[in-house]
Specification:
Layout (H helix, E strand, L loop, with lengths): L5 H11 L4 E5 L4 E3 H17 L7 E5 L4 H12 L3 E4 L6 H11 L3 E4 L1 H4 L12 E4 L30 E7 L7 E6 H12 L8 E4 L6 H13 L2 E4 L8 H8 L3 E5 L2 H6 L14 E5 L3 H10 L2 E3 L1 E2 L8 E2 L13 E5 L3 E6 L12 E7 L8 E2 L3 H7 L5 E9 L5 E6 L4 E3 L2 E3 L1 H9 L4 E10 L5 E9 L7 H8 L11 E4 L13 H7 L6 E2 L25 E2 L6
Parallel strand pairs: 1-10, 3-4, 3-5, 5-6, 9-10, 11-12, 12-13, 25-26
Antiparallel strand pairs: 1-2, 6-28, 7-8, 8-19, 14-15, 15-16, 16-21, 17-18, 18-20, 20-21, 22-23, 24-25, 26-27
Helix pairs in contact: 1-2, 2-3, 6-7
Length: 542
Amino acid sequence: MSQIPLPELLATRAAQHPDRTFAVFEDGERWTCAEAWQAAQSAGAALQGLGVARGDTVLCWLPNGRDQLRTWFGTNTAGGVYVPVNTAYRGRLLERVIHDSGARTLVTCRALADKLTGMDLGRVEHLLLVDDEDGAASGPLDARPEELAPLAVPLEPWDTQAIIYTSGTTGPSKGVLCSYAHLHTSATAAFRSWLTSDDRYLVNLPLFHAAGVVGTLGMLELGGSIAVVSHFETASFWQRVRELGVTGCTLLGVMATFLARQPPSPADTTHPLRAAYVVPLTESARELSTRFGVEVRTMFNMTELSCPVISGPVLDEPQRWPGSCGRPRPGIEARVVDPFDREVAAGTVGELVLRPDAPWVFSHAYHAMPEATAAAWRNGWFHTGDAFRQDADGELYFVDRLKDAIRRRGENISSFEVEEELRAHPAIRDAAVVGVPGEHGEQEVLAVVCPASGDRCDPAELLEFLRPRMAHFMLPRFIRVLPELPMTPTNKVRKDVLRTAGITADTWDREAAGIKVRRDPVPTPSTPSTPSTPSRAQNGRL
């Protein structure tokens, strides 16, 4: 299909195959294509009733499930811009995203809404709880589909479909503006070559990340179906694959490693899964492919891009080593450059820069951040901020991040935001956060802190101070106390010195101390949404 906006695509699928299954959920409920379009129209009409118009942002702070799909589809159908928010966000990070979005409507559930108490909600006027229990006649997203008003100006491929927040590195998290054309291109580039209308893709990655959004759109574009689960879980993964009829999926970070380390079983190949992306490519990917009979590919992507670098099946290319991301797909130019954007020789490490051969297929800007947009797109190329090398055959290999982002458990962590919370402790004068090598090829968070004059720092107490202020995956595992941070002559922290020192003898390790950090229980999506009515936040606060 052409780059048509989501509402038109939903309507087309409903007209072509009204009874074909589009989505299955953990509790066994299913949506046909016709029911998905009806849910979009119903939610769209409800949001229009609250004043959501073309181009308005709508915050969606929900776990994976039917209510998140309903909010997303309904927002776009009303002409609005879908703004999903990481369910682990809290405190100032969450408050910053709410303010930055400029949204007047926030859709969430009771378990998450409790974390908003006392928070400045900016322009938010309508707080919709999809699992409220006030006995109202209809849910907040359950208007009659026929009440949906047509848009005076139809949506176009270059209109913004979503703002997806990606973790900041040297500054606050950035909202990536994603047009319909951008996300369409991501979806078709990722899936058209290896999945068909007969396939079912597992949405086990969050729908507040590009990976979950692109997977859902990919199957909608192909006319296939999705299986939506709340999160990835090693122990139940293959059971879910069998029960939900999953044939394709994406595994990020250590997911493939965890699966490959499960004890062998006679049932290892008795499942419908036939194809998977494994990102990044590791030795575990080969083991996963061989042991479980799954065709494995890999890729390189960012929220700002549209799956520009993709590999073929890894077992068909024995020369492919861990770290390989594949080659630029058709329509993409790629260069590895030095700090002055001059191309480096094959095999030399530099920054990967990219550009497409058509407009609107990459992100067109960062929301309300023109300087960051200009910096990323300098000299007409998108600068990834990642170190790569390219061999003589054009194969691209990821080396490291040039930025200060830390990758842990499939999440990008902003050192800037962790440092901000560390400095909020009254006994901490300054702080720097770096990634250090961890198990499974990922990173762990090392926080180096300087106590205020006359104070001392108890790492265990500092960790407890941080727990309610940030997502579980951002909490430092290692804490080191120094009287001063190493600085450059221009008064910048020498993070290279801290990384090189790594885990020193005086570094505190929370795991060695017997302290466990676990994510909050994932809120269970309502089945179905129980009645609720929109509520108005008083003076922008709860």
